[in-house]
């Protein structure tokens, strides 16, 4: 074997090993990686509203209480398995610890959240995130635990309900304040949202093949954004009591139907810009590449790791499709599977 081929084979082996390690990354490792640049930094000042209509000013708590934010979702198996721990922490919390539940808002509704609260006997205030908390704390997995010390600095981010979390909670409450809370400049009270009637924003991102997709540069062609998740079809497919998974077969079926529908339509609509926007929740670039290779959907894909695209278009459920005409005006939004999608895309083309 030539030297060039030997080097190439060695590089391929390294790449495969790296991809395998990335795919095997645990939830705890993903959460710790997401929080690596945040731990030790001042927490953001945000005002959030609970599902019961009460306002919580996080910035006002810094310097007075430690804060424990737990991101969770009703469909998440590990979240459900950890609920007894969450209940115990809240019950044992004294005046020095504010415990707040944060439903991610991803594929969850208020009735579903209230049902889960009743099922597990949750008594702490609960917020359904509008995307601001997820952005502020780099939400990548569920559950994701965020512990903020009394001085307003982020002390811990993780995924497991284990001794590391318990130790972080103890330390956060006992840590000296040292001059009061030091929250960073307040984040926007609201987010810019682009709904039907609005013009596409000037967002850009690199697709899996390295091409830069500039959303605002339509090239006088209609644009169809397909918001999706690479694990929707499998994770939601059926209940699994052993893993505490409630299952949502209808949602899994909707994800499959939309994928198949988009694959067929993209082949018949050469004059349309298609883009798949994958949620960064529980997804890595490697996992999205595996999805692309498995299904060969035929449209460019980006991984919205920070959630910027999902927030911009106020997408809280997958699959969701946003259609804009050749001038960049958003003309239709489709939640889930719709028989008339082809007709709506054609109408956008004719405008």
How does this structure look, described?
The protein has 351 residues and is α/β, with parallel strands linked by helices. The protein has 2 domains: 25-174, Glutaredoxin; 204-350, Glutaredoxin, CATH 3.40.30. It is 36% helix and 19% strand. The chain is built from 12 helices and 14 strands. It has helices spanning 3-23, 27-35, 58-61, 77-92, 110-120, 132-136, 163-174, 232-235, 249-268, 285-295, 308-312, 341-350; strands at residues 47-49, 55-57, 66-72, 97-103, 126-128, 144-148, 154-158, 204-206, 212-214, 223-228, 273-279, 301-304, 320-324, 330-335. The strands form 4 sheets. It has a 5-stranded mixed sheet with strand order 5-4-3-6-7.
Key structural traits:
single chain; 351 residues; Glutaredoxin; 19% strand
Give the gist of this structure.
With 351 residues, this protein is an alpha/beta fold.
SSE order, one letter for each helix or strand: HHEEHEHEHEHEEHEEEHHEHEHEEH
State the end-to-end CA separation. Answer: 59 Å
Briefly note the structural class of the backbone: alpha/beta
Our estimate of the beta-strand percent is 15-25%
Question: How many domain units?
Answer: 2
Q: What's the total number of strands?
A: 14
CATH top-level class of the largest domain: Alpha Beta
Overall 3D shape: globular
**What summary fits the major beta sheet?**
5 strands, mixed
Mean pLDDT: 90
């Amino acid at each position: 074997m030539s030297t060039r081929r030997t080097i190439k084979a060695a590089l391929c082996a390294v790449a495969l090993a790296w991809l395998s390690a990335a795919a095997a990354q645990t939830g705890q490792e993903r959460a710790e990686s997401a929080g690596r640049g945040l731990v030790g930094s001042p927490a953001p000042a945000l005002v959030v509203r609970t599902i019961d209509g009460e306002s919580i000013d996080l910035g006002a708590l810094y310097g007075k209480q430690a804060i424990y934010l737990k991101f969770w979702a009703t469909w998440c198996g590990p979240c459900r398995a950890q609920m007894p721990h969450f209940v115990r922490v809240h019950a044992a919390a004294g005046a020095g610890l504010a415990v707040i539940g944060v439903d991610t808002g991803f594929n969850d509704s208020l009735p579903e959240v209230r049902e889960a609260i009743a099922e597990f006997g949750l008594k702490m205030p609960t917020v359904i995130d509008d995307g601001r908390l997820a952005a502020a704390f780099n939400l990548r997995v569920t559950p994701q635990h965020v512990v903020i010390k009394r001085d307003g600095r982020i002390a811990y981010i993780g995924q497991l309900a284990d001794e590391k979390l318990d130790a972080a909670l103890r330390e956060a409450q006992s840590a000296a304040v040292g001059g009061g809370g030091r929250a960073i400049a307040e984040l926007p009270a609201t987010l810019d949202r682009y709904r039907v009637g609005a013009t596409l924003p000037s967002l850009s991102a690199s697709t899996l093949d390295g091409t830069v997709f500039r959303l605002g540069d339509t090239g006088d062609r209609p644009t169809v954004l397909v918001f999706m998740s690479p694990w929707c079809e499998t994770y939601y497919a059926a209940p699994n009591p052993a893993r505490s998974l409630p299952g949502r077969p209808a949602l899994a079926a909707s994800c499959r139907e939309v994928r198949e529908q988009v694959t067929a339509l993209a082949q018949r609509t050469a004059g349309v810009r298609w883009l798949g926007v994958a949620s960064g929740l529980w997804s890595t670039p490697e996992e999205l590449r595996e999805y692309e290779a498995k299904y060969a959907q035929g449209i460019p894909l980006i991984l919205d790791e920070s959630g910027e695209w999902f927030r911009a278009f106020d997408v809280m459920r997958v699959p969701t499709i946003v259609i804009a005409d050749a001038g960049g005006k958003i003309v239709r939004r489709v939640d889930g599977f719709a028989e008339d999608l082809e007709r709506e895309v054609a109408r956008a083309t004719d405008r």
